[in-house]
Specification:
Layout (H helix, E strand, L loop, with lengths): L1 H26 L2 E2 H5 L4 E6 L13 E3 L2 H11 L3 E7 L10 E8 L4 E2 L1 E4 L2 E4 L3 E5 L6 H11 L1 E2 L1
């Protein structure tokens, strides 16, 4: 009977340890590029600013590989830390970028860059730890490299 209790206790401790490590990994600081799995992005869709209707379809796209790599390089300078579920309402609509990333394996991710936070799939909120984001450069880049859909 004692061996059985030892095994049960060992398994319970192992499960708690795995859960703790997974939670720590989920909330530790990460680079934006690694979070978005940018190595497999094929197209980027977005709305031209200012956004008039939040429910409007994306009306601009970036499809050139060189432009996508340049945007990824820009995003690679930012680090994020998960803060939990979506928990804010934006007060600055001019500082929002909503993207749709289309991957080579047909996955789609829809990150939103809002002020100093990132939303993924409108579910999880990440805070940019080394921001603020260079909105002026991002606006210039999107205007220069974006194409009509």
């Amino acid at each position: 009977m004692k061996k059985k209790n030892f095994y049960i206790l060992s398994i319970a401790i192992l499960i708690l340890l795995i859960y703790g490590v997974a939670k720590w990994d989920n909330y530790r600081e990460k680079n934006l590029v690694s979070l978005l799995d940018t190595s497999k992005i094929e197209k980027i869709y977005y709305n031209q600013l200012p956004i008039m209707d939040e429910k409007a379809a994306h009306n601009r796209q970036i499809t050139e590989t060189a432009s996508i790599l340049e945007l990824i390089h820009f995003l690679s300078q930012y680090n994020l830390k998960k803060v939990g579920d979506r928990d804010f309402v934006s007060e600055y609509p001019d500082e929002q970028f909503q993207f749709q990333l289309e991957y080579k394996d047909e996955r789609i991710t829809m990150p939103s860059l809002i002020e100093k936070d990132i939303l993924l799939h409108d579910l999880y909120q990440y805070h940019i730890t080394n921001g603020p984001v260079g909105y002026e450069w991002l606006e210039w880049f999107l205007e220069k490299h974006g194409e009509e859909v």
